[in-house]
Amino acid sequence: MSLLDHERYCAAITDETALLRDTVRGADLTRTVPTCPDWTIGRLAVHVGQAHRWVEAMVRDRAAEELPDDAEHIADYEPAAGADALDAWLADGADKLAGALRTAGAEQPMWSWARPQNAGFWARRMAMETVVHRADAAIAAERPYDPAPELAADALDEWFELATDPDAVAEDPRARELLGSGQTLHLHATDVPGAEWLIVRDPDRLRWSRTHAKADMALRATLTDLLLVLQRRLSPDSPRLEIIGERALLDHWLARTAFGASAEDETV
Questions:
Q1: Topology of domain 154-255, per CATH?
Q2: CATH pick for 6-145 out of 2.60.120, 3.30.70, 1.20.120, 1.10.3210
Q3: What's the pLDDT tens digit per position in 188-209?
Q4: Can you give the residue ranges of the MDMPI C-terminal domain (predicted)?
Q5: Where do the domains of the chain lie?
Q6: Is pLDDT at 268 greater than 80 in this prediction?
């Protein structure tokens, strides 16, 4: 699939962080986040800011290996107390990350935990990280969430790329359970022309493409709701969704596609 350009990802990091800040501003920072129940809204915001600073440090240093994600190795890792300080800290971290990525350029080689091993991976990953966690904050604060269509679609593209990567499937017993005998899942955004995906579960690999096709299971919803369902932020039981065909295929997919078993592990 074709990516958005590097500058679009860099801009999305700062733009989506600004929208996250708007969502968090004035909210009860101690309120539990339903989609990440181990976190409060405040902890969620700190997680995003710490992810930005962790990646910024690695991009700045052109890291050839993973940097520990902690205060010992990353400057300004914790915000000062108070909502205003958190807001300023989030903005500063996003600006620094976007600046480091722009300086590096997309093709700059560096460590990453998936392909490609370059700064472009992190520009996209941090943009999508912020897009999805803004949804968590919006759900918790009961505020609107409507990402730009190109970002929502690219977040789904990235999700499928990560979930179907042959190396990741080979290493993850849960992901190997997604291999099948040709079963198909189709996703259809009802509000954005051309925003459709097909997943094919072959015996030896998982395939996906942007296409319209008949499938064993079809999920129809707005593009935002497709993103929320596939990212496990919206229940497949929601009345906002239309599921046609073998519902069990969707449930099976959702149960086996996450970065980890807990909120701390599911994101970066």
A1: Nonspecific Lipid-transfer Protein; Chain A (3.30.1050)
A2: 1.20.120
A3: 999 999 999 999 999 999 999 9
A4: 150-251
A5: 6-145, 154-255
A6: no
